[in-house]
Design brief:
The chain has about 325 residues and is an alpha/beta fold. Helix content is about 35%, strand content about 20%. The protein is globular, with a radius of gyration of 20 Å. Bound molecules: N,N,N-trimethyl-histidine. N,N,N-trimethyl-histidine binds near residues 71, 175, 177 and 226. N,N,N-trimethyl-histidine binds next to strand 12.
C-alpha cells in the first residue's frame, strides 16, 4: 500500500489526468475475483487495498493534507519529537524493515536520528513505486544498504539474504495501516512481524480512539476528497474491469461504529439499480451499501495487549499531547 505522506507537489487529481499504467494480468485477475466475490455477499464488500491506484494514491495524499484529517501530521510530529529517543532504544548499526513502504518519507526522520543504520528493507506490493523511491533513498543515504522487496507484507516474508545484522533488526509500520486489518488479522500480522524481526523491535503507528465527532469529521471532509477517494474503487472497476457503476448513484457514507471501535466506509446506492460485471448482473436495493473500508481505532492498553499476545514485550509508547495518535 502506498504510504501517506506527500508534502511537495500534491496536485489536483482529476479522474482523467492520471495515466492508467497497464495493470499486470495477475493483479487484474485478483481485482476481478475479489470484486465478484464481494458483490455476491450478503453485505457487499471490497477490500480497501483497491483504493490505491495512481489516482487513489493522489487522493489519499490530499486527504493527509486536509484540516479535518490529522493522523498523518500528528504522527510525523511525534516522530520528529521523539526520533532521538527511539534511536537510543534501537542502538547503532540497525536494520530497518518497513512494511508497506510507499514514498519513504517518514522513515527518513528515523534514519536521520539513527547511529550508522546499516540496511533498509522497504517492502511493498507495488514494484514500480518501490524501486523509484528506493533509488531516491540510495542517493540521500549513500552509506545505507537499500534492498527493496516486492511482496505482500501480510503474507510470510523471506527477507533478502543476510549478512548477520550487527545491530538490531527493527520493523517500521507507521500510518495506522494496522487499522485496516480485522482484529484477528492484526494479531496474525503482528505474530508474523515478531517472527520476521527475530528478537528485534517494531515501531508501530496507530490512530487512537477519540471523540466520535473528531473521527466523523476526519472521514467526512468538507471538500469531499474522502468521498472521491471512496468512489475511486468504482472508477477503477469501470476502467479496469469494464463494470458499469454509475458514480452519481453511490453516496459516500462514513461513520464511527463505537462498539467495534472502527470507522466504516461504505458506498450507498441512492436508488434501486443493477450493475454489470462481465456477464453477471448485481442488484443494489435503494439504501444498500458496498462496504469499502474498516479503519479500527486503538487504545494504548489495547495495543499493549495486542503486542503481548503477538510475542512482543511491550516497550515505550509516544503520544501527542492530545492523545490522538
Ligand atoms: C491508510 C488506513 C490509515 O484509515 O485513516 C483515510 C485510510 N480512509 N481516509 C485511515 C483512509 C479514508 C487511512 N489508513
Amino acid at each position: 500500500m502506498k504510504d501517506n505522506l506527500a508534502y511537495a507537489g500534491v496536485q489536483d487529481v482529476a479522474e482523467t489526468d492520471v495515466e492508467q499504467a497497464p495493470l499486470p494480468a495477475v493483479a487484474h485477475a485478483e481485482f476481478l475475483l475479489d470484486l465478484r466475490h464481494g458483490l455476491a455477499r450478503q453485505q457487499k464488500s471490497i477490500s480497501p487495498k483497491y483504493f490505491y491506484d495512481a489516482r487513489g494514491s493522489g487522493l489519499f495524499d490530499r486527504i493527509c493534507l486536509l484540516p479535518e484529517y490529522s493522523p498523518t501530521r500528528t504522527e510525523l510530529t511525534i516522530l520528529q519529537r521523539h526520533a532521538r529517543e527511539m534511536a537510543l532504544h534501537i542502538g547503532p548499526k540497525a536494520e530497518i524493515i518497513e512494511f508497506g513502504a510507499g514514498s519513504m518519507q517518514k522513515v527518513r526522520v528515523l534514519l536521520d536520528a539513527l547511529d550508522h543504520p546499516q540496511r533498509y528493507v522497504p517492502i511493498d506490493i507495488s514494484g514500480e513505486h518501490l524501486h523509484a523511491s528506493a533509488e531516491k533513498m540510495r542517493q540521500a543515504y549513500p552509506q545505507l544498504q537499500v534492498e527493496p522487496l516486492i511482496a505482500d507484507y501480510t503474507q510470510d516474508l523471506v527477507l533478502p539474504p543476510d549478512v548477520p545484522p550487527e545491530g538490531r533488526r527493527v520493523g517500521f509500520f507507521p500510518g495506522s495501516t494496522l487499522g485496516n486489518f480485522e482484529p484477528l488479522d492484526a494479531l496474525r500480522f503482528m505474530r508474523m512481524c515478531a517472527r520476521t524481526l527475530q528478537g528485534g523491535a517494531l515501531i508501530l503507528g496507530a490512530d487512537l480512539v477519540k471523540h466520535p465527532d473528531t473521527l466523523h469529521a476526519a472521514y467526512n471532509d468538507s471538500q469531499g476528497v474522502t468521498a472521491e477517494f471512496n468512489r475511486n474503487v468504482l472508477v477503477r472497476a469501470n476502467l479496469e474491469l469494464g463494470a458499469d457503476f454509475k458514480l452519481e448513484h453511490f453516496a459516500h457514507s462514513a461513520f464511527y461504529n463505537a462498539p467495534y471501535q472502527r470507522i466504516e466506509m461504505h458506498l450507498m446506492s441512492t436508488c434501486r439499480q443493477t450493475v454489470h460485471l462481465g456477464a453477471t448482473a448485481y442488484t443494489f436495493a435503494q439504501g444498500e451499501t458496498l462496504h469499502t473500508e474498516n479503519s479500527y481505532k486503538f487504545t494504548a492498553d489495547g495495543l499493549r495487549q495486542l503486542a503481548q499476545r503477538a510475542g512482543f514485550a511491550p516497550g515505550q509508547h509516544w503520544c501527542d499531547p492530545n492523545k490522538q495518535f
